[in-house]
UniProtKB/TrEMBL annotation, chains A, B:
UniProt-listed Pfam families: polyprenyl_synt (PF00348)
Name of the protein this chain belongs to: Probable farnesyl diphosphate synthase
Keyword Transferase: yes
Keyword Magnesium appears in the UniProt entry: yes
Length: 300, 300
C-alpha cells in the first residue's frame, strides 16, 4: 500500500541530504575552486525548504519501472536545482521583487542582487553538470536524454518562456487559452520534465512515455490551478509567502475568470484526467496517483 | 599554410549563421512554443557581434585531429551561447551596469531587466539543449562529456565563480595570486573548456588533452592580460565599449600591479608558454598557435 506522506517525506529528506552533499566547494569545483560566496548563496536558495515535489515525481515515475529511489535521486536533484534557480531569479527586484521565500529572506535580500543572479546561474549550470556524472545513470545515452529533457523543459519553450509570457500577460489581456499555455510552460514544463525523466531512467517505451506525459501535463495543470486557488484562499502563514498577490496585481488566473467554484470544478476534472492517463499501469503507479490527488487537496 | 584572418572570419560567419539558425522559435520550442520576446532578446544578445574566439578555439583544437570545421560548430555555438549569456547578465544594473555592448544597447537597455535576466537564463539553458542534439556528435558518450566540460567551465568553479570573486575583489584587496585565480576562472575557464571540447570531439587521448589544457590555460591568461592592457591603452571607439573602467573603479589588474611594460613582458612570456605546450603537435596546431599570437597583438 503506497503511503504518500511517508514516501514524500522520505524523498524530501533524501533531496535535502543530496543537495547538501552536492552543493559544497569540492563537488562544485571546476578549473578553479568554487567561490565560497556563490556556494553559500546557492545553498541558501535551495536547502531547508520546499516540498521537493519535482524530485518526488521523478522518483514515482521511475518506480513504475521498479527503479530504486536512490537511482532516481540525482535526476531529481537536477530538476530541483532548476526549480530553485528559477525562484531565486523570480524573486529579484527586476522580476517579482519578493523579500520572503519559505518564510526566510530571499537570496538577494540575504546577499545582494548580483550574488543572487550568479547563484541562480550557477544552480542552473550545475544541474547539467550533475546530469553529466556517471552516478546519475550508467548509460551515457540515458544521461544525454535527461540533459535534453531538462533543458527543453526549462528553456524558451518551457519554464523560462512561460515566465516571459507571464510578465507580458500582466501588461495586456490574456485569453483563457493564453493563460493555459503560459501556465503549461511556466509550471507545467518542469513537472512534465520530472515525470518524463523518471520514465527515461526507467527505460520506458514510447507508449508508456506518452501515457506518462499525458499524466504529467494534467498533473501540472492541477498543480497550477491549486496554486491559483490557494493564492485566494490561504493565509500567508500557511503558504510561507505573500498571498492575494494575483488579485492585487490584477493578474488573470483561471480563478479570476471562472470564479472559485468554477476553478475547483476544473481542478477535480483535471485530477481525474491525470488518473485516467495512468490506467494501464498497475499499483506501481500509485505514487503518481497519490501526488495528483495531493495537488488538489494541498493546503499550502 | 594556416591563415588566421581567413579562418577566423570563416568561423565568425559560420557562428553567426549557426546562431541565427538555432535561435528561432521552432528550434527553441519545448513543451510549448518559445516565447517571442525572449527569443528576440536572445538574438539581440548574441547575433551581429563579437570575434567568436571561443568557437574558433573549439574549431582549431578539433582541427588537430582532422575534424572538419562543420563538425566542431555545434559545440562552438554552445560555448558562444554561454559567453553571450554571461555578457547579458554582467551588463545588468545589479552587476556592471553597462548601457553599450559592441556599440549597441545592451539587452536590458533594448528590452528591460527582467527580459535580460530571462534571455540570459534561456541562452544558458539552450547551450545544453544544443549539446544534447545528435547533430552535435553521433556518440552520446561524447555529447555528455561536452556537457560536463562546459558546465564545469561555466559554473561555480569556473566562469560564474570567477565573476563572484571579481565582485568580491572590487571591495577588498586582492593579492596578485588571487587576481590570477579570479581571472583564470572568469575568462580562462571558458577558453579552457573551448579547447578541451574541440579535443574531446577529436577523440584526443589523455596526453594530448593534457597538452591542450596547458595551452588553453596559458592562452586564457594571455587573453585576459591583453584585455587589461587594452583597457588602459585602447579607445572606446576601437573597443566598442567603455575603456579605462578598471582604473576608474580602482580595480586591481596585473597592469595596475606590474605597470604597462611589466604586463607586456608577462604577456609575451605567456604566449610563449602556450606555444610550448603545442610542441608535440605538427602544423595542424597552427590555428591554435596563431590564436595565441593574436591574443597578444589584438587592437580591440
Amino acid at each position: 500500500m503506497y503511503d504518500f506522506s511517508t514516501d514524500s517525506a522520505a524523498c524530501a529528506r533524501a533531496v535535502e541530504a543530496g543537495l547538501s552533499d552536492y552543493l559544497t566547494g569540492p563537488r562544485l569545483s571546476g578549473p578553479g575552486p568554487a567561490a565560497d560566496r556563490v556556494v553559500a548563496a546557492m545553498r541558501h536558495g535551495s536547502l531547508e525548504g520546499g516540498k521537493r515535489l519535482r524530485p518526488l515525481l521523478v522518483r514515482q515515475a521511475a518506480a513504475i519501472f521498479s527503479v530504486a529511489p536512490e537511482a532516481a535521486l540525482p535526476a531529481g536533484l537536477a530538476v530541483e536545482m532548476i526549480h530553485c534557480y528559477s525562484l531565486i531569479h523570480d524573486d529579484l527586484p527586476a522580476m517579482d521583487d519578493d523579500d520572503l521565500r519559505r518564510g526566510r529572506p530571499t537570496v538577494h535580500k540575504a546577499y545582494d542582487d548580483a550574488t543572487a543572479i550568479l547563484a541562480g546561474d550557477a544552480l542552473l549550470t550545475h544541474a547539467f553538470a550533475l546530469l553529466g556524472e556517471p552516478t546519475t545513470h550508467a548509460d551515457p545515452a540515458v544521461r544525454i536524454r535527461l540533459v535534453t529533457e531538462l533543458a527543453l523543459g526549462a528553456g524558451a519553450g518551457g519554464m523560462v518562456g512561460g515566465q516571459m509570457r507571464d510578465i507580458e500577460g500582466e501588461k495586456g489581456g490574456f485569453s483563457d487559452g493564453e493563460i493555459g499555455i503560459m501556465q503549461a510552460m511556466k509550471t507545467g514544463a518542469l513537472i512534465r520534465a520530472s515525470v518524463r525523466m523518471g520514465a527515461i531512467i526507467g527505460g520506458a517505451d514510447a507508449r508508456a512515455l506518452s501515457a506518462l506525459t499525458a499524466y504529467a501535463e494534467a498533473a501540472g495543470r492541477a498543480f497550477q490551478l491549486a496554486d491559483d486557488i490557494l493564492d485566494v484562499t490561504a493565509t500567508p502563514e500557511a503558504m510561507g509567502k505573500a498571498t492575494g498577490k494575483d488579485a492585487e496585481a490584477g493578474k488573470q488566473t483561471l480563478v479570476s475568470t471562472l470564479g472559485l467554484d468554477g476553478a475547483r470544478k476544473v481542478l477535480d476534472n483535471t485530477v481525474n484526467e491525470a488518473l485516467l492517463a495512468l490506467r494501464t499501469f498497475g499499483p506501481k503507479a500509485d505514487g503518481l496517483r497519490a501526488t495528483a490527488r495531493f495537488f488538489a487537496s494541498r493546503k499550502n
